[in-house]
Amino acid sequence: MRPGPDWTIPSFHIARPKDIPALRDHPVDGDSYAETVQDHGPGVCYGVVGRDPRIVEVISLVHKVAASNATAVLLEGETGTGKDLVARAVHLASARKGKPFVEIDCAAIPENLLESELMGHEQGAFTGATSRKTGLFELADGGTVFLNEISELRLDLQVKLLRLVETRTFKRVGGVEEMQVDARIVAATNRDLKVAVGQGCFREDLYYRLNVITIHLPPLRERRKDIPLLADHFVSRLTSQIGNRVRGVSDKACGLLCRYSWPGNVRELRSVVERAAVLGKSDRILARDLPAEIRDPDAASRAPAVLRLTEDGIDLEGLKRGLVRQSLELTGGNQVKAAKLLGIGRMSLRRKMKKYGLCQMFSPQLRKDAGNPARPGSQGR
Ligand SMILES: Nc1ncnc2c1ncn2[C@@H]1O[C@H](COP(=O)(O)OP(=O)(O)O)[C@@H](O)[C@H]1O
Ligand SMILES: [Mg+2]
After folding, report:
1. pTM here?
2. What pLDDT digit, counting tens, does each position of 98-136 carry?
3. May I ask the CATH class of domain 220-302?
4. Which of 155, 187, 193, 361 is packed most tightly, with the most Cβ within 10 A?
């Protein structure tokens, strides 16, 4: 397959296991992971931490799926629950691990470019197509394609994806040749796809094809017992990565972490722990190092619906940050919708996310997930 001269791999599209530091150098301490990956041999782990039965079940499913010849897997879960991590785990646990892992964020690539990104195009297929382009499916041959935010995929591309999943064939844009490709599709969504089907935004046939094997990532608030384990994991990782002096979390701080509802899930926990570990002054994370909403989770619900300025003044920046954050929580991190809720443009929202330190928590493009490769279409965003 893949005739043509452009067999070059843009490095930002492709990750081989050794290029994914988050997976290569992911020391997972304690027995939490060992309990679930013993069958993978010593020293081999995929960075998924958790003792909760639902996480143990997730890991067991990862192994089953990885060993199977299933062509498609669906990962469902709120933002920050570990879908990226699990997608990579499926790849690394499988015989495909030496082949490319190609991640595509369907929400990040402009609609008009997505098809040629995925399928490639022939020379002259459209204005500006000066040479043949190899698509990402083709580049992933033998490996895994991770389609993130699959619910954002246009309906006509959903038809093409269905065909690819069923027949493992596709055509380049402007091409007539049937291309064969052997790539496993791992699709992820933080929307309920069934609802999207009901609303006519997602094809039912593709939904049922993807839904054959679905892995649900539980929200952190439904597995609170894992919170101390995860917090310790992030602390020790920071210590080994940047030599941070912090050695653990105080009992009081840990109690607060366990009580909080974590709308941003594990990503939010990681941010909070890392921030506290870097900015705190003690060798343990203390209650005072945590953000106000965690120290006093009821404060938000006590906030008045109508604000009235008094002589005591208000923390305007804090309020703005709170609103930006709420907009992202309400929309599951969808920046277009969040910007709409706030009545501002998307670029303005992104500037505010940067200003208020919310990028890592909510932005798949800007977070530095321990060396995630940048995604197609994300440059300069
Ligand atoms: N079970 C877990 N164990 C360890 N780290 C996790 C776990 N789940 C999520 N994370 C971490 O939380 C952050 C967000 O996870 P990610 O996979 O990007 O979530 P999602 O794709 O669902 O938004 C990443 O830094 C990831 O490494
Ligand atoms: Mg993700």
Report:
1. 0.72
2. 999 999 988 888 777 888 888 899 998 888 888 888 999
3. mainly alpha
4. 187
